[in-house]
Please model this.
Amino acid sequence: MKFVLSLSLILLSICVSHAQNYDMSRETIERNPSYKLEEYFEIVLNEHNQPDMVHVVKNMLNGSAIETKTYYSGTPYYKDAEWHKATVKMPGQIPIEGWISFNQVHQRVYFRARANTPMRQFIEPEYFKIEDETFSAFPENDLLSIGYFTKVDYPHTVLLHRREKLQRNTVSQEIQGYEVGQSKYEAFFVDHPVYFIIEKGKTLKVENKAYFYKQFVKDKKETKAFVKAEKINFNKEEDVKKLLDYLLL
Model:
């Protein structure tokens, strides 16, 4: 009789313990798990009429739809548009017309045959042409094996420009537990042009503007005066071309 009573008390104690540890919220979540409804990126104009990229995620949680948005200043795409009508030349094939998405951060190109189809295909073309600009690949050249380049020919010299962007992630700062200087942006996409010169069969990377003075300039003082007068910006291809026109033509 005592043994049965003791066993009953143990079972009662276990039941009470389980009742005390019962978590209604956990049971609700287990019965109504969170799952993703939709995820996509979109490009919008901000209050300064500049393009932002927004990462939209829609989840279902406890029977309710929850939407989160992550903002990026700028975009990784050429001319801040995801798709462009283009002519594409694949190795061993004739050029074809279609639509190109050129991610300048990763130097990756996607193709689709029509503007309204959701299907896309990663490609590695010999070249592609958007409007009046042609982007060429040079996989056989070690220095140029990554990315796509526009090209300008000069007598005995070729200027190559890799249209590149960098993604600079935002770092929040904390002082004594308070978050300060928090940006609404997760990251910023910024232009980062990279130039190469091919001369006498050799490919050289232009590390900085001093390269032009060393490689081409006969009268350094006169060239610096030209750069100052013309307000040459070495981050802009048209300005670099203007300088080379002055130096080489």
